[in-house]
Structures are given as C-alpha cells and as structure tokens.
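Quick one, probably user error.
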C-alpha cells in the first residue's frame, strides 16, 4: 500500500506492507523503500512502513535546506502522527539507522524497539567514512555526470575503495547515473556533513531494546561503529553478518534472519487472522 504526506513543500511517499504491530524502517542515503523490502522480510503480525526521505524514491525534495538527518527524522515522526501511531518499532539501514537513533533518543517513550543496521555514524558529524560521498558531490558540482564519474573513478579515493570496499565503490558510482545531478550533489554533500544529533550520554540513557547489525569489508559502515554503538546502548545486542562485498546472498539472508528473530522476540506480534465466513 502506498500513500503520501505533504510537509514543508515536500510530497513524501509512504510505503506499507503487512498488518499488525507497526515497524517504521528507513532506507539509506540514495535508497528507497525497495532497499528496505529487500532486507526486511514481511512477517505475520508486522506492519512494515517506510517513509521515503526527501529527494529519494517517490518523494520530492521540498523547499527546506539543508537536508539533514534531523529533518528526515521529523518527517518520519510527522508520518507516524498522520498514521495515528503512538508507539512503534523503529529501524534503519545506514542513514536510516541514524534517523532511527535520532528519533529514539528524542522520543524513547514512543519506541518499542530499535534496529540500527550498518551504522555510518556514531555521534560526531561528518565522520571520515562519509568523505567519499562528499567527493562524489564535489565532482557532480564541478562537471557533467559522465566526466564527474570518470574523475572520481580515477581518484585515490576510488582506488582505496576498489581494494578495501568494492561494494561501497559500486554504490558511489551509481550516484552519477541518477536523474537529477544537482539534487544528488546537494543530498550527498549535506548528509555527509551531518550526524544523528545524539550525544554519547544520550545514547547511554536510551533504555530501549536494540539490535545493532554490522559487518566487515565496508568503509562507509565500519564494523567498529556497530561494535561501539552496541557497547554504548544499554539494551543493545550486536549481530555481525556476512559482508555484502563478499557474499551478497548470504548477507541478505543473515540480515533478514537477524531482524526477524529480534522483532519476533521483542514485539507483541500477533498474526492477523481472517474473520470466519458466514
């Protein structure tokens, strides 16, 4: 099911699947609801909801600038309010994990559980692992897309990623083929310079059951970040899964299993049954 919410000049696309306990699950930078659906399987008794962030998927960019994780988090909360959701589980991949952490720290009373998958931030803005996104943004601002792609592909940054994190490199090269290069550059530059807006002390006080998912062979999502978050959040459990760069199918299967096991053990999931026919 798909719906839309208008907010601050933006038309936000809301994608839902299933019925039951609501789980708001957010995609990563450059992703959309399809990324979530690929990694979070439908479950009996679960209502999976993704609000595609401004400038992503079927959502328009709107008028508010700069793009920030806090702005995206406010959009998710506005969608939850519009849907009449007082309490929900919350999760996300990469940027989506930062959005989830931002909401969880500010509104822990509304969050039944957290899933922080492949975190790209701890607590400080503009971490070094986000620098390649800023380099892609700079290339797109300086040159037409094909020339910008060639410049980035020949850079020291691309050479490092080709060696250490080939999946990250493939993702970054994909940004050069997006239909609106100026908007893509704006999104990448703004989000790469931002952070969740959550302090370490606030994270230590976040008394919510939490699953943290991490893996290796990934420059954008250092496994050290996943381990550090799991050690900081008081009710967190860390699951390390197969790297996407080395075995994409196994990575997907282990991601899905980790999320499903955690949600089934944490949430009051009740399968939706059909009313008996007269």
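Nope, works fine. Designed sequence:
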């Amino acid at each position: 099911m798909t719906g839309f919410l208008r907010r601050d000049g933006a038309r936000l696309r809301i994608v839902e699947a299933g019925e039951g306990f609501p789980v708001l699950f957010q995609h990563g930078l450059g992703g959309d609801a399809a990324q979530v659906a690929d990694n979070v399987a439908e479950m009996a008794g679960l209502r999976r909801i993704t609000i595609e962030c401004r400038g992503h998927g079927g959502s328009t960019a709107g008028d508010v600038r700069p793009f920030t994780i806090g702005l995206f988090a406010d959009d998710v909360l506005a969608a939850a309010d519009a849907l009449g959701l007082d309490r929900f589980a919350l999760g996300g991949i990469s940027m989506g994990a930062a959005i989830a952490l931002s909401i969880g720290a500010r509104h822990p009373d509304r969050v039944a559980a957290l899933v922080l998958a492949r975190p790209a931030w701890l607590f400080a803005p503009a971490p070094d692992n986000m620098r390649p996104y800023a380099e892609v943004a700079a290339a797109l601002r300086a040159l037409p897309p094909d020339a910008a792609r060639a410049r980035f592909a020949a850079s020291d940054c691309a050479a490092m990623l080709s060696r250490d994190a080939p999946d990250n490199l493939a993702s970054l090269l994909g940004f050069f083929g997006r239909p609106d290069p100026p908007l893509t550059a704006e999104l990448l530059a703004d989000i790469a310079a931002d952070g969740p807006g959550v302090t370490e002390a606030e994270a230590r006080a976040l008394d919510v059951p939490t699953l943290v998912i991490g893996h290796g062979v990934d420059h954008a999502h250092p496994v050290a970040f996943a381990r550090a978050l799991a050690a900081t959040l008081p009710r967190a459990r860390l699951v390390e899964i197969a790297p996407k760069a080395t075995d994409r199918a196994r990575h997907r299967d282990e991601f899905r299993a980790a999320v499903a096991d955690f949600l089934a053990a944490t949430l009051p999931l009740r399968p939706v049954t059909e009313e008996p026919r007269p």
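The longest strand covers residues 10-17.
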